[in-house]
Fold these 2 entries.
Entry 1:
Amino acid sequence: MAQFTPNHQTSSTRSTLVLRVLYTVLAMMFALLGGLQAMASGFEFVQTTGRAVIMHQDAEQEARMMALEDALYTAALQGGAEINGFSIITTDTAIDDHFVVRPASRILDYRIVNEVVEEEHYAVTIEAAVGDLPDAQCQARGHSNVTVYAPTIRVAATAPAWTRQFADMAMRDVVMMLDEQPSLNVQVATGTKLDPAALARSNDAFDYTALTSGRVRVGRGDYAIIPQINLFGEVTRGFGVSNQRMTMQLNLRLLAGEGYETLLEHQLTKVIEIKQSSLIRSLDVVSRPKRHAILAEMRAPIAGYISEFATKLLCRPVRSTLNYADGTLTIPLGTHHGVGVNSLAVASGTDTPWQILRVSAAGPMTATLTPLNNQRQTAGLAGQAIEFMELN
């Protein structure tokens, strides 16, 4: 009987192959985790240095571009890497590994910090913003400046006449709770009806009303609020029983300053039982809600409603347009609007996906911005729309 003699070289080769494959899987897992961590953290600033050999005297510019490419590639790898690889066994049973490493993140913008020739090498150091722009759904800007104008109160004929005073009380609650929100700087102008057309026509320097009593205007970057409350009733009948209900509709209309275009309408609807009529009159009298209970029902949801509105307003992105004059980029927003030194803004890019700008100086109503890439022509950014992704 023939005996089988194990091939120790083949067994060793297979063990080595298993170890190599395991190493490849682990490397890919760590790279994937690194990429996920970078995506979860939004973006970050990293500083890297790339180098390239100067092949001959006339190749310095070529070496500079290769060094810059190396620095950008290294910066992109800081956000994680995607590794694809495989191992093959050649005819002489040797194992050959093949790996392809790709950055898992992208460079949003960058600037050259330093470049120098070191003997036969060209070195370029960059600072890059790597990753993804943070979610702009909520920036928590710190505060918003709002002016509350005269409210609109409408009580339909189908609602009981005595509910008019309840509507007034509910509206006072709305204005008071807006004023109490810590994230809102509120100017109460409930004695003034907002008329954007009249404000656009008048020149405060020559207008009699503006010179004597003043006109309430809302500046750029601030907001106007017009509260509204509607009350109407309805009666439903069935099986000898009729139910009278009242519906309260609250609405806060948010308008942008200066142009007064509507940005948001925040609404609340509350249905309240008023009375029930049936064949048993004594039971109807006992079960009928008291007026103070009806008022309490109207006022109960207002606190949460105002808090939701303040959160929505606080999360609105801060946008502006860049102005250019005397070599400087400015915007008509400042600390009054939550924009401070080192706040970060973003504009559409040309050679990169985005252009990142940092606030270098800020006053109450104006701010100066500097592009991250200081090699860009700032005049070319004039008129660009920007959105702040980080406020101080």
Note: The first strand starts at residue 43 and ends at 53.
Entry 2:
Amino acid sequence: MAGEAENRLGGRVRVAQGFSMLELLASVTIITLLMSAVFAFMYQAQKRFQGNVVITESNQSARAALELITQEIGQAGFNPQFSPHKTCNQVVQAWADPQWIKLSDITGINPGDWLQVDTGTNNEIVQVWATSAGGGTPANPAASAGPPAYNPPSPATTAPWIEAVFEMNHNGSATPFPVISYKMPYPSGIIAPPALPAAQVPFDHVLEFFGDINNDGVIRYVVYSLAPTTSPATTVSVNGNTYTLYNLRRSITPVTFTAGAVNNPSSPLVQNVLYQDINATYAAPATPLGPTGQPIFSYPNTVVVGVVPNQVTVVGTILVTLSVAINPRSLESGRIEWYTMATQIRPLNLSAAVAVNQAGGAHYMVKLPPGLPMTYPTGY
């Protein structure tokens, strides 16, 4: 009988039957096919997981950038409030040209601000041309600085001096007269892009604004701009159009109110922003600037307000549209993939400045402060 053997006592025992070589080969083949399918699935799942991580990280950086831009634009044009308790103990003679006077304190007084000087019949409102701390250049530097007693202070001085035109006499020798700082919003808090011919698209890849951005009493100048991610620049093709991969960069610098001041170096916020060559001139509507056909920064609500000669350009709304390439290719499909994030921002401070103008306060609208826009450093 097959599978059985006879022992010494004449009984029979069953012997285990083994696998044939053909059975083993068949088993190994089946297991190999199954494992190949499993490993292919695991590899694809791993690529999808890694791709989702890349998308999430890129999405977070773009979202964080939009939140930061929204917060800072919300402060654009804000002119910080300070204590009104400032005095002058000098005798000031009315003079047609700017003259320097010394105050008890000039903290928070910047070139362009308006001051209410003295009380009673000698009360007047003057605009600050320059300060010994914040710089600023008189409109007519060649003109006389006023009476000899009030010539400009030495450049090395740290005393709290201001320069302005005084049309009234003020005598603070016995009782110092009060000086109150008016803090009107800067209606030009968002610097409007340069005008271009109608056949060209807007200068949309740079956003510049200023104000008390950090709400700490310091006027700061902020610039968002694009710079290539690599040198030489990397280009990709999307839907038949060629785009360069850029970094969205940010620079923030305290305003010095002096001509020739330079921005702080910028730092990257978002990588792989899709945009056509920033150095090219595009005729509308031949090619879109980004995959969506929308500019990165656009200004749909720009108006000129004020009364001559105090007219200023007010940007009431900013639209931000960021199209970001993924890594720059999708790890799963190997194709160029991208996503878009957009937001609309309306700065309240600039609306307040327009309200002041509509109420008849155009005379006190503060124009672009001296020294702005600042100079870009090399390689910006």
Note: Helices lie at 21-75, 348-361.
